[in-house]
Write a structure and sequence with these properties.
Chain lengths: 301, 404, 313
């Protein structure tokens, strides 16, 4: 393809669009990792679950509860889905993950891998792998706006804006508020924080719930763009892992910035040499590992 | 302990020896038909369980028995993975005594299964996959390609589009055997008719986000964006093209392989006016309507060409067994290739030496919402392309079964 | 371990094709060797690789290519595939051992993903269709591996089976020797206490890398064998699901036991084939086994057994 300003900018915009999903997912992983020291393999599956909560809330919830005219609309889904998935996450933390803290952290990875398979398998069984359309996109976000170099769908623009707001909101809470300071202290030294009378186990549960809630939020955002499919998370999670390795799991800001950046790099690669676009993130990971093994924003432990 | 075990194994081996049996007429006392297709994935709506329904209907209509022996239908999901498909086929032939496999949506899977079937001397009647390789370089004495192929799809559609001003093309191609074959065949006809192909981009099977591919297509400036893909990929691409306003800028999307179920999922409002090639339409004549209504009563959807083709293939396979008086693959194939195929599905049908079943093909057009009188009243037949013009001439086939 | 057990196992292996569907049996052997090779790394060195499919699947592509397109004999094809896995193992290993624990797992996963994309895009791999129609060829140019003997009415590909069985025994023997060598004892020391191993003067990095390469090589050998059995190299075997499956096999059978991976692999593969009719519920079942193993059953089948018998198995 010819490299023109127009083609580069359009692909970069699309890259940014993907990038906000990377950012929001790797942010959730980073928050969870910070406090629980667990790499949450189920993150992709819970992202998918969020999309399904939105889809089912719109299509089948009404008939199920005997109110065929009831549809959970998009805005409500943006709130409900993270809450449902967050609650599920907290249940998982309380009943399963909690038992593993005294063992090697790898068991946390393996457990969540198993959970990811279960969730994905259940949905594959009931829904079409190729995806079902989510038609509840609000009227106001229909259509496209001209950015000069391209027509960009309004909805995608909204996704970029709201994702950035959520990411930086989370960063602000963790880095700049009192609640966040407990969290950070809990990461550094849970015993000491406990001694100050903070309920650390509860804090851990809530953190896990918030982290996976973020994933579900991203799932709802993704639903109108991509079709809702049982494998949508599985495709995403590996890339997000690479993003996390590149950023280093130490910092919240690192996760956000790396996610955005890599989305854009990926988009740019599509213009320069399209076949490499799906590997470019992994290649960058190799380079980062060689040069700075702890990741761009990571601290060496 | 070791001795006991060895003895046990030896006994088991002997038992296996003893149970061997050879029968005349129908080998192993049963005719088994395997439906191996995409039961859960991107093509499951247009094939899937519906294909098995078609086969089961045919068996029932035939009377459930052939030459006095029962007919059994089994089904499996190949998940669009060639390795799963070929392993399943191998197991079916080796262990389950399956005599014929049909369905086989997905060219990658079909090529793998046809290869195994050829080695094991068993019949495949392919109703789903489209690659022309199946009747050319990969053909076997036991392979039948029943419904459509990328040659016919490309030819009929290109002949409808190119002379009407659609003379520059850009392809969005599913990145596996089927997409490659469809792109190559269509390119041939576009060029032959004086058109020009400006480029193409390949996407993985079951892509959810086509935006970056569509932008590449847009940047190419081609008048026609040819979709060399199928099923969910085609409908996703069409929907997203609208999202980015591509069709508003004078570029037109042309689906090269479209099924009724795709139109259903797109809706007439989005799809109206689109033209494409099909091997069957349920509302063509009385015979096709009668069959389709019976099919609908079971499956709750009108049959696609793959599903209707599976019925027809099974029916003619059973007829051939009856006529040959045996289910021996060589004898059955000889009968199949000598008889005329004429039923609600195929008009002027004939199975050639290369395994290609040629029959009339149709250029279809999607109705406007106002023209539609019912949920499944989706299409009209614009043109009927006779069997001998729609498919690749036998003389051009590189199949080893064609005597030159 | 006593000799009688080994003799019985080998005897069973030799007689198996007359009782069990040979293709299925060969699949068991391939995955058994794959899991055993993986266990060398996880069980005896304490490194969790989440990207071992790269070696298994990668080698099956290389073997397929060598046999099909270059026209090598099968034993050379397997050798080539195995060597390629060794090289790849060296490359991946040197990068991955720069990190530890969870990071190590994620790095191997991501690197394996590069191999996956190569398998998807490289000109000789057939992309989504996989590398199809790999001939079985003549062993040493003499023995036809595709030859089918009719025993009791059922066709048995015995030549191929015994070739695969021999390769399996060879691979397993290498693993067994490695575990029980002084080298293996150092690995165990690293697993138990890396800092102490360093302070004893061992070059831990080098030992880890060696273990990684051996494990990758044998995983590759298993993949090379599989491509001859199924005459196909496909994306399934390089995907991260395959990497996850081998972890499960090892975990289920018993991490750090000699026979555990075999038991695990046999169980998982049998489950998959017996339950293939339930469709995608199989993924749910596999996931559930994973969860149960991690929560309640971390020693695995053979691990528990050996605890009961109070002797290593």
């Amino acid at each position: 393809m010819e490299i023109t300003f127009q083609t580069v900018m359009s692909q970069v915009m699309l890259g940014l669009n993907n990038g906000v999903f990377y950012a929001i997912l790797s942010l959730g992983l980073a928050v969870i990792f910070g406090l629980l020291n667990i790499v949450n393999f189920a993150h992709g599956a819970l992202y998918m679950l969020g999309a399904y909560v939105a889809l089912l809330g719109y299509t089948t919830l009404g008939p199920l509860i005997g109110m065929p005219d009831f549809h959970l609309n998009y805005w409500a889904a943006l709130l409900v889905a993270p809450m449902v998935v967050g609650a599920l996450g907290m249940a998982i933390e309380r009943t399963m993950l909690r038992r593993l803290y005294k063992f090697d952290h790898l068991y946390g990875l393996l457990l969540t891998f198993g959970l990811a398979l279960i969730i994905q398998g259940v949905f594959t069984n009931f829904f079409n792998v190729s995806g079902d359309p989510y038609d509840a996109k609000p009227e106001i976000l229909n259509g496209a706006v001209s950015l000069g170099f391209m027509m960009f769908p309004k909805y995608r623009l909204w996704v970029i804006v709201i994702s950035l707001a959520v990411c930086f909101g989370t960063w602000f809470v963790i880095e700049r508020t009192k609640l966040g300071s407990y969290l950070r202290a809990g990461t550094e030294n849970p015993e000491l924080v406990k001694a100050f009378g903070v309920n650390v186990p509860l804090m851990i549960t809530l953190t896990y719930g918030y982290g996976v809630g973020l994933a579900a939020f991203a799932g709802v955002l993704a639903a109108p763009i991509y079709s809702v499919s049982p494998v949508m998370g599985a495709e995403m999670i590996i890339t997000v892992f690479a993003v996390v390795v590149i950023g280093g799991m130490g910092s919240i800001m690192g996760a956000i910035v790396t996610g955005l950046l890599l989305g854009v790099v990926e988009g740019f690669t599509k213009v320069v040499y399209a076949p490499a676009s799906s590997t470019v993130i992994f290649l960058i990971m190799v380079v980062v590992l060689l040069v700075k093994p702890a990741g761009l924003f990571g601290r060496e432990s | 302990m070791k001795k006991g075990l060895v003895t046990a194994c030896a006994v088991a081996a002997l038992a296996a020896l003893a149970t061997s049996s050879f029968g005349a007429g129908i080998s192993d006392g049963v005719v088994k038909i395997g439906v191996l297709t995409d039961m859960s994935g991107v093509y499951s709506t247009l094939g899937g369980k519906g294909t098995q329904v078609g086969v089961e209907m045919a068996v029932k209509d035939f009377g459930g028995k052939v030459l006095g022996k029962p007919i059994v239908v089994i089904g499996a999901d190949h998940q669009n993975k060639a390795d799963i498909a070929s392993a399943k086929a191998r197991e079916w032939f080796d262990n389950e005594k399956v005599d014929m496999i049909t369905g086989l949506l997905n060219s990658g899977c079909a090529l793998a299964v046809q290869k195994v079937a050829g080695e094991k001397k068993r019949i495949t009647m392919n109703t789903g996959a489209a690659s022309t390789d199946l009747t050319n370089s990969a053909c076997t004495p036991y392979s039948v390609h029943y419904v459509y192929d990328t040659y016919a799809l490309g030819k009929v559609t290109a002949e409808a589009v190119v002379p009407n001003g659609g003379n520059t093309w850009f392809f969005l191609t599913a990145d596996y055997a089927f997409g490659h074959s469809l792109e190559a065949n269509t390119t041939k006809f576009v060029t032959k008719l004086g058109g020009k192909v400006l480029g193409s981009v390949r996407h993985p099977l079951a892509t959810s986000d086509f935006s970056s591919y569509l932008l590449q297509a847009q940047a190419s400036g081609a008048k026609i964006i040819g979709l060399a893909n199928a099923g969910g990929d085609t409908t996703n691409a069409i929907k997203q093209a609208r999202e980015f306003g591509i069709d508003k800028k004078g570029q037109k999307l042309v689906g090269l392989l479209i099924f009724d179920t795709d139109i259903k999922s797109l809706g007439l409002k989005v799809a109206q006016g689109m033209q494409f090639t099909s091997g069957f339409y349920w509302d063509r004549d009385k015979a096709s309507r009668d069959f389709s209504k019976r099919f609908y009563a079971i499956h709750k959807a009108m049959p696609t060409m793959d599903q209707a083709g599976a019925y027809s293939a099974t029916m003619n396979y059973l007829k051939a067994i009856k006529a040959a008086g045996t289910d021996d693959p060589d004898a059955v194939m000889a009968k199949l290739k000598s008889m005329d195929v004429s039923d609600f599905f195929a008009v002027h049908g004939k199975i050639r030496a290369d395994g290609r079943m040629v029959h009339d093909m149709y250029l279809m057009e999607v109705k406007k919402p106002a023209e539609s009188k019912g949920e499944w009243d989706l299409l009209k037949i614009v043109k009927t392309v006779p069997a001998n013009q729609a498919f690749m001439p036998l003389a051009e086939s590189t199949c080893s079964q064609v005597k030159k | 371990m006593n000799k009688i057990l080994w003799a019985v196992l080998i005897g069973m292996g030799l007689l198996a094709p007359f009782v069990v569907y040979p293709v299925f049996m060969m699949k068991l052997l391939c995955f058994g060797l794959f899991a055993a090779a993986f266990n060398l790394l996880l069980g005896y060195t304490g490194l969790l690789s989440f990207g071992h499919a790269a070696f298994f699947g990668g080698a099956s592509y290389v073997t397929g290519y060598l046999v099909k397109s270059v026209g090598l004999t099968p034993e050379l094809g397997v050798l080539g595939g195995t060597l390629s896995a060794a090289l790849l193992g060296y490359a991946v290993g040197s990068l991955a051992i720069r990190r530890q624990g969870i990071y190590f797992a994620m790095v191997t996963l991501a690197l394996a993903q590069i191999v996956y994309f190569v398998a998807l895009k490289a000109p000789f791999t057939g992309g989504e269709d996989g590398l199809q129609g790999i001939p079985r060829g003549d062993l040493f140019g003499l023995i036809d591996l595709g030859r089918v003997y009719t025993v009791g009415g059922s066709p048995l590909g015995l030549n191929l089976y015994y070739f695969i069985f021999f390769m399996f025994c060879l691979g397993f023997w290498i693993i067994y020797r490695t575990i029980h060598s002084p080298f293996g004892h150092v690995l165990k020391a690293i697993r138990e206490n890396e800092t102490r191993a360093v302070s004893l003067g061992y070059q831990v990095e080098r030992f880890k890398l060696m273990a990684f390469v051996i494990s990758a090589t044998l995983a590759g050998m298993a993949g090379a064998m599989k491509s001859l059995v199924f005459q196909l190299a496909s994306l399934t075997d390089v995907s991260w699901h395959a990497s996850g499956e081998v972890v499960l096999m090892t975990l289920l059978g018993g991490v750090g036991t000699v026979l555990g991976p075999l038991v695990g692999a046999f169980t998982v593969v049998t489950l998959q084939s017996e339950l293939s009719s339930v469709g995608s519920w199989i993924t749910v079942i596999i996931g559930a086994i994973f969860v149960v193993c991690v929560l309640l059953f971390r020693r695995g089948v053979v691990g528990e057994l050996s605890r009961l018998l109070k002797r290593p198995l």
